[in-house]
Design brief:
The chain is mostly helical. It has 22 helices and 4 strands. The strands form 2 sheets. It has a two-stranded antiparallel sheet with strand order 1-2. Keywords: Membrane, Transmembrane, Transmembrane helix.
Length: 531
């Protein structure tokens, strides 16, 4: 089998040389065409990610709002929330208003009744205010510490719904314990009785007050939680949305600016010498600036649209990140990937529901997949670039780590983006090529050398015949044009015949019918008046 392959290679070598040279030229042109075709998709993304990302991106582990899940793991969005959540318990923080309340109660009440026993209390130091839900229980409530400031927790703990007037000995015995659990326990001084029996507590009334106090705490914390997340989602969402919107708008502005500026500047300096005088050069440069201004003004709507898409994408990504962090902690890189993916999804969704005029649904789906691929690839490229920069900072190249990593990351990400987008755009063709390659291998393994030579010679002869036919057509075409030219410019012929030949020559060269002179009067009028 190896001998057959070598002989076939020798046989085809000469014929393939010209094809190979042509193929190399086509491949170079194809790569240039490929880069031009996907320039907007990839370059716009790279400008936003690598050029503007450091200015506008602000991602952190756990997202922009501290969730209860993350707080339990010690992950906070800001220092203030961390300090509030980790604050140590201090009973004084939950008894700030007690002196005023006691003084007011003693002054305005003729007598004070124990809320647990119904007994009359003295207006002296033996009369205490008790937190029905203890101050320690309020402070140990993780949701209360996360969602509420110290002042709000104090207001909740010292609300009339959570306070009871009682005897000092009962209050000290209960301490930080749950009221109903404490009532059911054996009294330390009199183990034969429960605390409820020992202090002669009205258990039904005490249970009612305990239930009311717990409902008060739960409902207050629930309202604080709702306010905390609504406020957090809105403030952090608007902030991230504005950052993303500005990044996308400025990215598109820079892309459009360089796309317009580079050709204009190049053309200006190519013609610089031909302008001659300084005033002409200034005039042409002024015209250049006016054309740039007009080009950018025409793109204002697209730039505004990019800002809106970025705003919506940033806000939505922030919301989704917060929801995920209620049960799992997102990393900084995951938050970045989510943000970029959501923005790309919004762009893709808009393209699918409102494709440009003349674009079918299948093409719109293809374009949407390219948008998603470019965005995710660029986001992954940024993550890898940051990791590479961190590694370089541990080497002697540390002073140039960010620069080197940024340049290499941008180049490699650009190549990867273009390649992946191209593969999506030509997926069917790529798969056909792979299938053809396998078919060729299978063919070479099953067809004899003589059959391959015969097929090759037949194909070559058919190609020669086709080329001869094409050359014949070209020859006949030019022969006909040559005859028409001779007739049209033969002044020895009759004017009518010469005019007819001139008309046929004009049509053969693509001149529009409305521009062809049809009569001698029109010819006279053209030369007498048209000049």
């Amino acid at each position: 089998m190896s001998g057959n392959v070598l002989e076939m290679t020798s046989l085809l070598e000469v014929e393939l040389k010209e094809i190979t040279l042509s193929k190399q030229t086509l491949e170079i042109n194809h790569v240039l065409e490929l880069l031009a075709k996907y320039k907007e998709t990839t370059l716009n993304t790279l400008i936003s990610q690598f050029g503007l990302g450091p200015l506008f991106d602000s991602y952190r582990n756990g997202g922009n709002v501290t969730t209860l899940h993350n707080a339990g793991k010690g992950i906070f969005a800001d220092e203030a929330t961390s300090e509030r959540y980790t604050e140590a318990f201090d009973r004084k923080n939950y008894e700030k208003d007690f002196p005023k309340k006691r003084k007011l109660k003693f002054k305005t009440s003729s007598q004070i009744t124990d809320d647990y026993t119904g007994k009359i209390l003295k207006k002296d130091g033996t009369t205490h205010l008790d937190h029905i839900v203890s101050a320690k229980a309020v402070h140990d409530n993780n949701e209360a510490r996360l969602y509420m400031s110290a002042e709000r927790r104090n207001e909740m703990a010292t609300s009339d719904k959570n306070l009871a007037w009682t005897d000092s000995s009962l209050n000290q015995s209960k301490s930080d314990k749950d009221l109903e659990q404490w009532m059911a326990r054996k009294n330390r001084r009199n183990p034969g009785e429960t605390n409820a029996q020992h202090y002669e507590i009205n258990q039904e009334e005490a249970a009612r007050k305990n239930k009311e106090a717990k409902q008060h705490v739960q409902s207050t914390v629930r309202r604080a939680r709702n306010k905390y997340y609504v406020s957090g989602v809105l403030s952090s969402g608007v902030d991230q949305g504005l950052r993303m919107g500005k990044k996308q708008a400025l990215g598109m502005f820079l892309y459009e600016l360089q796309a317009a500026l580079i050709p204009e500047i190049t053309g200006y300096f190519r013609q610089f010498k031909s302008y001659g005088t300084l005033s002409r050069r200034i005039e042409e440069f002024s015209n250049l600036c006016m054309r740039l201004q007009a080009r950018m003004a025409a793109k204002a709507t697209d730039i505004a649209r990019a800002f809106g898409e970025g705003l919506a994408g940033g806000f939505t990504a922030n919301l989704i990140t917060i929801l995920i962090n209620t049960f799992a902690t997102t990393s900084r890189n995951m938050a970045r990937m989510l943000n970029d993916s959501i923005h790309a999804l919004i762009r893709a969704f808009k393209l699918l529901i409102n494709p440009p005029h003349g674009m079918g649904q299948s093409q719109a789906l293809l374009e949407a997949s390219k948008i998603l691929t470019a965005a995710v690839t660029a986001s992954a490229g940024v993550i890898l670039t940051e990791s590479f920069a961190a590694y370089l900072k541990t080497t002697p190249a540390a002073p140039f780590a960010d620069l080197v990593a940024g340049v290499l990351g941008g180049i490699l990400t650009g190549i990867a983006s273009v390649t992946l987008v191209y593969m999506i755009d030509n997926f069917v063709a790529v798969m056909k090529s792979v299938g053809a390659a396998f078919s060729l291998i299978k063919y070479q393994l099953t067809v004899s050398r003589d059959d391959i030579r015969r097929i090759y010679l037949d194909a070559a002869s058919s190609i020669d015949a086709e080329y001869q036919l094409i050359l014949g057509r070209i020859y006949l075409e030019y022969e006909g044009l040559n005859k028409l030219t001779s007739l049209a410019y033969d002044c020895g012929r009759l004017a009518g015949l010469q005019l007819k030949a001139s008309q046929e020559l004009a049509r053969a060269n693509g001149v529009q019918e409305s521009e062809i002179l049809t009569g001698l009067d029109e010819i006279d009028d053209f030369f007498m008046n048209g000049m």
